[in-house]
């Protein structure tokens, strides 16, 4: 049974709303990323697998994948430093597509045959988010060529935009949680030093800071060790 274009997009909008609620309900950044790729493989017509990677200072780091094939594709892009998803984050282009991986591809002459050997027929890459020195891409894979038409590209771009907002919110939430936990641990460590070694608050903090600098260890780690051992750092 066929559906009118308006009906299809209405269903897609409802599914996006459900996805947004699902992403915001995740407790961790990793949970959010895992759900993004799962939703992508369901919501985008023709998409068999999906993944998210980042490129930081030229190094690819996979963040989420629906299958081992996607993880292997990420490693191929890293090894070759070539591919639409790699370009999406290094050139800051919104969308890159290879419609038919079985045909010679001038721009990605090495990557396209390797992906074809993995059983893929076409691929799209979307710029997912940007920061000062880190960029990300949402990658969609199909086992068939010419799968991702204009409607799929438009739907993928919308989904990637929603995913970027959810990812940013999840990361901010986690950073705030980490900051509060760090503050608590430092405060607890300072209290131990003040009580056991008769130090003032200022002296206790300076001791923590000096130990962190001398040993090139994060202040939070120094504080955690004091909380665990109760001993004054050397």
Automatic annotation (TrEMBL):
The lineage of its organism: Bacteria, Bacillati, Actinomycetota, Actinomycetes, Kitasatosporales. InterPro entries: ANTAR, CheY-like_superfamily, GAF, GAF-like_dom_sf, GAF_ANTAR, WH-like_DNA-bd_sf. This is Transcription antitermination regulator. Residues 166-227 form the ANTAR domain. One of its GO terms (molecular function) is kinase activity. Keywords: Kinase, Transcription, Transcription regulation, Transferase.
């Amino acid at each position: 049974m066929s559906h009118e274009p308006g009906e299809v997009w209405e269903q897609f909008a409802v599914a996006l709303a459900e996805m947004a609620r699902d992403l915001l309900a995740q407790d961790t950044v990793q949970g959010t990323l895992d759900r993004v790729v799962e939703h992508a493989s369901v919501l985008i017509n023709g998409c068999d697998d999906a993944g998210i990677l980042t490129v930081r200072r030229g190094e690819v780091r996979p963040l989420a994948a629906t299958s081992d094939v996607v993880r292997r594709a990420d490693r191929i892009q890293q090894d070759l430093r070539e591919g639409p998803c790699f370009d999406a984050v290094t050139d800051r282009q919104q969308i890159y597509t290879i419609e038919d991986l079985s045909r010679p591809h001038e721009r990605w002459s090495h990557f396209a045959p390797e992906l074809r050997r993995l059983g893929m027929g076409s691929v799209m890459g979307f710029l997912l988010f940007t920061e000062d020195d880190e960029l990300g891409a949402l990658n969609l894979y199909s086992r068939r060529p010419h799968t991702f038409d204009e409607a799929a590209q438009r739907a993928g771009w919308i989904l990637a935009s929603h995913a970027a907002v959810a990812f940013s919110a999840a990361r901010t939430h986690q950073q705030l949680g980490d900051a509060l936990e760090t503050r608590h641990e430092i405060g607890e460590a300072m209290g131990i030093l003040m009580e056991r070694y008769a130090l003032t608050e200022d002296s206790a903090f300076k001791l923590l800071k000096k130990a962190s600098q001398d040993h090139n260890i994060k202040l939070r780690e120094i504080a955690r060790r004091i909380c665990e051992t109760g001993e004054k750092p050397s």
